């Protein structure tokens, strides 16, 4: 049936756009996280953006205030788990979007800080849960020589010599102990501040780094939780980069680091599955955060168009500006829809896949980039100055096109996945 209206009134609108009505609980959570994003993350994020990477992580830095205040909010998986799945997805999405709206770098730092704890909870290991509780975590996977290569799941994706490179960090797995040597890349988010790492690396279980499987030569691997105060662990200089400067990143070095084998969360047989699960989780988190960052850019541009006069009136009065604002809002709605759908798939589908999450991360960040690009342009010369906040959001979003997997690579992986699904019968009926 058509829902008939007597008059044309303005549509229902929420901070997160054209939503069906939010429940009281959803509204309360949205309000709390929005206030936190507005009053804490956004001002502290701007402050941190202008500091050196060393000062960002120094004692007394606003970074620690942001992390401390975030911890007080109690935005953990237990909160989401109380709700029915569909509602949980919407709440998780709104939380992620609000945090990204406040500051994309801090949103990523807060998100990844809980990764080791969440993994410990997922495998149900109480010792590891206790070890990770209340700590800042990181997800260590990429290495200087293994960037895009660290996110491959099928042999066909490595074509040069038909096998995965071992990489720069390796584990020797003994009966009771694992010995780790090498380093992670300087890109590890929270790498320079984390107290505990969810770490993925190539592993030798006694007969080398490679094994023959039905899919050809495969690298042996291990995933484990590592307390980062063990003897032999050191850090590189915190990374100086253009975007998400509030997010501390840096190398982690391992020199004969001995870790009890019971800290492993996935040995060889479960390694790729575990990595895939973690990566699916991270990709959908990125989607919500960068929808929020794009929304921040849109809102700033919308306000500016109502303040700046050119051509005899406010910018917004010109039809061309309305087209540009409409384009931004359309893209924002599209990004949010993709972000939510991918989150629902990751949380509720019986069989998730990292490339299904990754395609959404590509779409959201590409749309976010287009939105912030247009917002920047609408600010004219002012957009290029550090006095206005839009240039920071531009830099923050630009980094997201590479973060959590470079977008071309992820899209190519999606094409490969489509081929596998086709060969498995998909679309043939
Ligand atoms: C803000 C940010 C946060 C990050 N956080 C983390 C984190 O928390 N933990 C972590 O482990 N890592 C993290 N990373 C690392 C990130 O996952 C990698 O940067 C990303 O996977 C790309 O790897 P790379 O930088 O080594 O680029 P490369 O893999 O060297 O790619 C460089 C270029 O080569 C192209 N290319 C690569 N492989 C191929 C190929 N086979 N065929 C054709 N072209 C190819 C790519 O498309 C790209 O344009 C982060 C990165 C950023 C920017």
From TrEMBL:
TM annotation in the entry: none
One family name in Pfam for this protein: Acyl-CoA_dh_1
CDD domains: ACAD (cd00567)
Keyword Flavoprotein belongs to the record: yes
Keywords: FAD, Flavoprotein
Cofactor(s) the record lists: FAD
Taxonomic superkingdom: Bacteria
Ranges where the Acyl-CoA oxidase/dehydrogenase middle domain occurs: 138-257
SUPFAM superfamilies in alphabetical order: Acyl-CoA dehydrogenase C-terminal domain-like (SSF47203), Acyl-CoA dehydrogenase NM domain-like (SSF56645)
Keyword Nucleotide-binding: no
GO MF terms held by the record: acyl-CoA dehydrogenase activity; flavin adenine dinucleotide binding
Domain Acyl-CoA dehydrogenase/oxidase C-terminal: 286-411
Family affiliation: Belongs to the acyl-CoA dehydrogenase family.
Name of this protein: Acyl-CoA dehydrogenase, C-terminal
Lineage: Bacteria, Pseudomonadati, Pseudomonadota, Betaproteobacteria, Burkholderiales
